[in-house]
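[audit] Reproducing an earlier prediction to check determinism. Same input, same settings, fresh worker. If the tokens differ from the archived copy the diff job will pick it up downstream; this log only records the rerun itself.
[audit] input (256 residues):
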Amino acid sequence: MVQQRARIREEGPPRNHFLASLSPDEYQRIASKLVFVDLPQGMLLSEPDEPIAYLYFPEQGLISTNATTPAGESIEVGMIGREGFSGVAALLGQPEMQHTVVVQTPGNGYRLRSSVMLEELQQNPKLRQMVDNFLYVQMVTATQSVLCARLHGLQQRLSRWLLTAADRSESEQLLLTQEYMARMLGSRRSTVTVTAQALQEAGMIEYRRGKVTIVDRSKFETAACECYQIVKDSHDRLMPKGDRQTMQTIESNGKL
């Protein structure tokens, strides 16, 4: 795994929505045990059959949960932004998981020992419900991804995936290479290149040097399959809400 570097965070409330949804008393019980760290792209947060020592609560960036094969092939089955955290399996009495968890787009966030959160769950029914809601949304995402990969074409899948990434990062600009998108979708890079070019020619996105910008969200949502809206509805109903405009202002000012 990439070595993690702890650093000082600016004063103020947490920008991770899950942490921000805790009451002041609940947050203070774990605040001293939170470590603010950089999350560089490609950083492995957990690997198959390895202990889940830490949970990661991103404040910026995206985290992917990927199903992998012994040959090294992979496909994304879950995506986490500021609304949640990685390592939820550790809170279910499962010290290990069968998937790889990796930083998809770079950012930063908090690291917390899973044992600390487990201790909190035992005495906090509200926190348990928040974790259950998050877990349910992850289940919906994973099951819908299976259906999407089986029944829908690449243009619909890529549109769905990019829209979801934009929602989780709360930004219409995404730092993603075509090679990475292909790996997350379980497709060939050449096929993703052709599909992305078609979306760009249709005026839905712009793609330049590893940066994807959604330029017509309404049109893009029409191009996506129904899987996008199914997952979005579950997410919007159950997960803590963020302020997309605030996040975009913070990013543009370079404060993260």
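[audit] rerun output stored. Observation attached for the diff report: Residues 243-256 have pLDDT under 50 and may be disordered.
[audit] end
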